[in-house]
Amino acid sequence: MNILEGGNVFKDGDGRALTQRINQTDVKSTLAWLEEMLPGLDLQNNTLGSTGIKDTSGDLDIAVDATQLTKEQLVAQLTRWAVSQKQKPEAWIKQTGAGVHFKTPINGRPDLGYVQTDFMFLNNVPWSKFVLGAMPADSKYKGRERNVLMNSIAKSLGYKLNQIAGIADRETNKIISDDPDAVAKM
Length: 186
What we know:
Layout: E1 22-23, H1 24-37, E2 56-57, E3 59-65, H2 71-84, E4 93-96, E5 99-105, E6 114-122, H3 125-132, H4 143-156, E7 159-162, E8 166-169, E9 175-177, H5 180-185
Parallel strand pairs: 3-6
Antiparallel strand pairs: 1-2, 4-5, 5-6, 7-8, 8-9
């Protein structure tokens, strides 16, 4: 059994990546193509990390509300698409702990190559978008550095940063707030 964690999960028999970086100019149209294939999912407004912010992205990171759609339901939709294209689903879809990965044709066109789309199933999408969002494109800092700073400040106040739920009391683990504006004031 292979354990797949982040990075490029689609490789050929020699270990070469089957997906590539995507240009910022192709992100919106590729997500629009995916939205047509996956009706009801708002992908363009739920990007995470540097998706669509930097000149290129190594993958498309997408937040999926786990209270609205399960991994199994998404895998079933992606599988139906692969079968309709006369493709083996296992060549297009991989699952990891909290995610589903899809080998996505850029702009829906295989001739342009493929990008890996990472669907991340989260229970609190607004909070996760705040915590897992990228810094502005012109920032010399990364989101992880912002989070280290936020956690350091929280620690000095008796709190801790929970990346999927909010700011928690350090002793009880009880979530104090998951509102980014309230957290900034704290």
